[in-house]
Amino acid sequence: MKTILIIIGIVLAICIIAYFVFPRFKSTIKKIFTGLFVVIAGWFGINQFDEIPNPIPADDGIEIPADTIPENPKDTLIIPEVPDIPKDSIGEVYHITLNSDVNEDQTISLQNQIDAVPDGSPGYYNVIQMPEGRFWTEGENISRLNKGIVKFHDRHYLEIRGGSFYTKRPWIDHVGNVGKNDLSLRRHIYITNSSHLKFIKTKIEGSNKVIGDKVGLDPDFTPDWWVYGRDSGAFGPAPAYLSYAEQEHAFAVESSNHITFEDVEVDGVFGDGIYLGGDYLNPSTDILIKGGHLKRLGRQGIAGKNIKNVVVDGVVIELGRRAGIDWENDREFDSIVNVTVRNCVIETMQTVFAMVGRGYMENIVFEDNRYQTGGATLTSYDSLLKTRRKGLVFRNNVRIHPWSFGSPIASITMMAWDDVLIENNIELISGSQSKTSCYFKDCTNVKVIENDFGRGDNIISVSSEIEANNNTPSQKLIQ
Predict the structure, then answer these.
(1) Rounded to whole angstroms, how far apart are CA atoms 289 and 147?
(2) Which residues of 57-66 are buried (b: 16+ CB within 10 A; e: fewer)?
(3) Which has the minimum average pLDDT: 71-75, 201-205, 337-341, 385-389?
(4) Element (H, E) at 8
(5) For residue 430, what pLDDT band results from cuts at 50, 70 and 90?
(6) Do residues 156 and 128 make contact, with C-beta atoms less than 8 angstroms apart?
(7) pLDDT 10s digits, 173-191
(8) Cα–Cα distances in Å, from 255 out to 121, 152, 194, 306?
(9) Which domains does the chain carry?
(10) Chain-centre distance of CA 267, in angstroms?
């Protein structure tokens, strides 16, 4: 205390002498002197208040019994949950009006109204609200440059709610050489170079609705409009397949990102229920297909090439003519990366999960799906046998009774794959024919663990590294 007072006195003395000796700095010295005075006065005041004793409470306060204090306060504290803040908010809502007259094609009216709706912006989706009812949308002048009946080209931040649209004609005739890709290219909803679009409870109906054991082969099961003769491969309770019309998809996405299909419906198209694609330099990315029912499909349930970051969750695929899920690139430099199919129910005539074609694939997951098919479960390899693929998980999937699998080929076939896990699946393989559960060729780090293969009792391994444990029945490795 005494030392501090001495120091302050010395500083004040210096300031007084400087005031008279250096008149040019009088103003500055005044400011220094004033500052010191404020500091000294404040310091003395604080010390005076510190000496005032705290008041004594009138009683001893409330005593908390020791046994009621929890060791960990988190055991008794109720911490309210913070509600999730929606990532996207709704902007403007635009109502579409259409005429449900069965004799009036609504394509032009629908397209003009859609085109008049402005795009939303990041975080704000403008809503296109479709009217109640079922509307005829046939489309005109379908060609290579005009593939869609209803088009969303270069559209962004839109939410399309509802809408039920159908066609009358079986397909758009495009007679020519199928080998030269001379096909009908009609897609009902065609999405190109777009981003952040959501389709919620939209329904598409095509003309491919005839079901029978001999569709296209027997007059009793052939529709009046079936003028192309026999279906080249009809079998089982499936819709008709026509090679000229196999690209007539209900929904088609090309070179777009952040596209969502939620609870959409498809009934009776000659192509895929939902097709995802793009160029290898401009793939379709960040796609979510959640819920929904895809029925009577002339080709695949869901197909894709050049796609990345795709989730298919809880979709029902019924009466699929070919594969349930078909990830199939066209060229060796195409790729499919980070794709998951889960919680789906699939009924199809051929392979449930097909991944042949060409090109690279990585991080592919199939889990918690149930399926019924007369064909194989999973087939995957580069058809040119040039490209290795990496990272596949096939887990917790169930082949539904009564269609067990009896064939000379394996139920699961994979070639040139690294890092494969086949785990905890129920795969009903019959006791007839080869009883082969899996076939692996040129694969590394393959684990086949805790699966029920019915009566399938062997795994064929050709130049592959396989670990097979705890399967029912125990699997014989045949080299």
Answers:
(1) 22
(2) eeeeeeeeee
(3) 71-75
(4) helix 2-21
(5) confident
(6) no
(7) 544 454 555 567 789 999 9
(8) 20, 12, 7, 9
(9) 1-46 (no CATH), 90-478 (2.160.20.10)
(10) 22
